[in-house]
Hints:
By secondary structure, the protein is mostly helical. It has one domain (23-457). 81% of the residues lie in helices and 0% in strands. The protein is built from 16 helices and no strands. α3 (83-89) crosses α6 (153-159) and α4 (96-127) runs antiparallel to α5 (133-148). The longest helix is centred in the last third of the chain and has 41 residues, at 375-415.
Amino acid sequence: MENTETPTTDPGVGTRAASKTPSLKHRVIRGSLWAFIGDGVGQVMRLCGNLIMTRLLFPEAFGLMALVNVFLQGLAMFSDLGIGPSIIQNPRGEEPRFLRTAWTAFVGRGLVLWVCAALLAWPLSRFYEEPHLKLLLPVGAFSIVISGFASTKVAVLTRRLHISKLTLFNLSSQAVGLITMILLALHWRSVWALVIGTHVGVTFKTVMSHLLFGPPRMRFQFDREVARELFHFGKWLFLASILAFIVGRVDRLVLGKFMTMAQLGVYSIAFMFSQAMVEAVTRLSRRVLFPVYARTAEQSMATLRSHTFRIRRALMAVTLPPLWVLIVIGPEMIHLIYDERYHEAGWMLQILGVAGVCATILNPVDSVLLAVGNTFRHMLLQLARSAILVVAMVVGGWYYGTTGVMFGFVAASILYYPFLAALIRRYKVWLPLLDLAGLAASGVAVGLGLWIKAHWFMS
């Protein structure tokens, strides 16, 4: 039957008249500014909350929660259908029928994931010799069920580059969850404060996604044609997400077996700081660069290359200096703001910061493959990254233990570059001179910073 529904023009996220629509350049600049503001405020909130929680809870609580979060993220990525990116990339992405079919898939996926988490709880608790995981994992996984009911209109905000509304929406949800965690930790002094606080924040976000963004109202609906389009776009993203999980989480899975929960909690502190800028760039790529590249690719590859160069050059200028500072004064910063239980995070932060520099330079390129609709090459890139990462970490751990695992994490960030170049070269967005300039500038800046610290401040 012919689809007679038309995209919504909700005033909350509606389109403007063509004569009043800002240029693409202005939308990119405005979206990028809001994305960085949101990430900056979010990181400050996260840091303040972390400083408070580390004084209320023991390192073991953070180690347990790190394992729980890794497995929940793994379940989510192992079942990623690419629905959000499909809404952004597909020309029909704003049709009510498309959004409702996507929402139906999200809800079903969340329920299936919760059942999987419940089934995995007992064997994982035995493997890691942590009885708490038997209850923590299924209870923590219920947040996936809750988030599965969130309105797919949130993806439309990204599609339309309404980053300001998306940023305020995410920050308010983060604040609600964080405040709840702190209040519960004051009374419970238990890892359950982290679990329940997460549930409250996710519930708030889900409810507000339906109240704030207007029609179409979500309801269960299944359209075969939409389902085929979702599957066609997402079939390779499914495998790519599994591989991305390996890239982003395998370090904690491996270290969780060889470290105590207290040591893993300390490592999670170092990882949080080292990945703050990487996560900011990743979110910017997903919320701003992906929709921008998708629209630009419709024009020509020359235009896409030009935009890619200018955007990545600006990103490096903004995002690399904070990482240089972390590498140079990471130990001193950790000693200043954390008590002695967390001081080992200092040297870990320096090692992980180097990997953060490489990821910050190269990660924005991934969005190009999705923007042009080549999810197969995107999957191949994730396959290369995950394989190299696992091999590098295993070899490093075999010879140098936990320190070698972290050095393997750094080495893998560089070793996969030839695969990246080969896969993106077809679209004329391989920029080797820009990549080399970013690495060279980082080496000079960090080397100079360490020399100044050693000769002027440590003498």
